[in-house]
Amino acid sequence: MSDYVIPMPPVVALPVAGSAAKFPVRRVYCIGRNYAAHAIEMGHDPDREPPFFFQKNPDNLDPSGVFPYPDHSSDVHFEVEMAVMLKSGGNRISIADAEDHIYGYALSLDMTRRDLQGEQKKMGRPWEIGKAFERSAPCGPVHPASETGLLNEGRIALSVNGEVRQEGDLNQMIWKVPEMISYLSDYFTLAAGDVILSGTPSGVGPVNRGDEMTIAVAGLGEMSVKVE
Question: Per the database record, which ranges form the Fumarylacetoacetase-like C-terminal domain (predicted)?
Answer without folding.
Answer: 28-227
